[in-house]
Amino acid sequence: MATKKKRPGFAFPGPVPEEALAFLKNKVLQPGFSYLDVWAAEHAVAFTVAKGMQADLLETIRAELLKALAEGRTLAQFQKDLTPLLQKEGWWGVQKMHDPHSGETKPVQLGSPRRLKTIYRANLRTARAAGQWQRIERTKKALPYLVYGLGPSEHHRELHVRWDGKVLPVDDPWWREHNPPNGYG
């Protein structure tokens, strides 16, 4: 992995855009056993958590994500608030669960600090990106170009480093595949 270039004045994440909150709030609850139960583009309209099979559980998780996004809460605060709620619901640790795809009952990992970290990061990043894209679309007449810039990570993939500084029109198809978040971790 390559290291990022230092950018004077680069700040992340900044104020919470209303579009980001609306994106997360308006997602339809989609219970699912596997992360594969909801495919690519469906994630833009569906809120799901693997092994989150009850709508009330999904709503509890989403409510805490909305609170974290709206109030700028850290991962630690999110975990501290959500952990007891999930434990109360019985959605914590390794438990046996029926897999509707295979028909088997098997041990699965439900809530854990690591899972909450994944849920927090994935949902807040995609909500912010959706809100940012709405602003880009709204202002593209006045600001018709985008610049690909590296995020705040300490290490970046070589491919992403090669894209750093790339300038293209907002409507260029390249942005469909390269608009952040465009990779895991």
Q: Could you describe the 3D structure shown?
A:
The radius of gyration is 18 Å and the shape is elongated. It has a two-stranded antiparallel sheet with strand order 1-7. It contains 6 helices and 8 strands. A hairpin with a 6-residue loop joins β4 and β5 (105-109). It has helices at residues 18-25, 55-71, 75-89, 113-139, 158-163, 174-178, and strands at 2-3, 28-29, 46-47, 94-98, 105-109, 145-147, 155-156, 167-169. The chain is α+β, with helices and mostly antiparallel strands. The two termini are 12 Å apart. The chain has one domain. 17% of the residues are buried.
* Structural class label: alpha+beta
First CA to last CA: what distance?
12 Å
**Range of helix content:** 40-55%
What is the count of structural domains?
A: 1
Q: Per the principal axes of the C-alpha atoms, what is the gross shape?
A: elongated
Instruction: Tell me about the largest β-sheet.
Output: 2 strands, antiparallel
Q: Over the alpha carbons, how many angstroms does the gyration radius reach?
A: 18 Å
Total count of helical runs of at least 4 residues? 6
Share in β-strands: 5-15%
Q: Could you tell me the number of beta strands?
A: 8
The secondary-structure element order is: EHEEHHEEHEEHEH
Query: Numbering strands along the chain, what is their spatial order in the largest sheet?
Result: 1-7
**Stretches where pLDDT falls below 50 for ≥5 residues?**
4-12
